[in-house]
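Data deposition worksheet. Section B asks for the primary sequence of the deposited chain exactly as it was used as input, without tags or linkers unless they were present during the calculation. Section C holds the resulting structure in token form. Section D is free text for depositor observations; keep each observation to a single sentence. Incomplete worksheets are returned to the depositor.
Section A, Depositor: J.P.
Section B:
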Amino acid sequence: MNIIIADDHKLIAKLLEKYLTSNPEINVVDVVYNGMEVLKSVRVNDIDLVLCDISMPILDGMRTLKLLKESYYDLKVVMLSIHNEKWMIQKALNLGACGYISKESKKEEVLMAVTSASADSIYLSSQIMEIMKN
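Section C:
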């Protein structure tokens, strides 16, 4: 599976890259730091999934998600955020995200989200599931 990691915090992005590339089924094609870079990378690379932060400069994750789904309907997008408000989670899902992970989640949940997305399932991290129940 070819993925892009998009997070404006370079340390987080690089840690995610290191963790995900330890799985032989995952190929991190690009690591970018804003939504505009996501759009540029998707245009020139064969991408299956974007792991996308919500709070990014130039073009935020929600707007990036909306633009990706308009142009690349089948592209999987998993949102990764510190924003755990119910309305924001629902907005991401309504825009077409196939997953939402809290940045407070365990690293294993990132892999579960990517794996679920590749199987056409929606994945919500355990913390996000609790928020959505209430």
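Section D:
The CA atoms of residues 5 and 16 lie 8 Å apart.
The domain at 2-133 is CATH 3.40.50.2300 (Rossmann fold).
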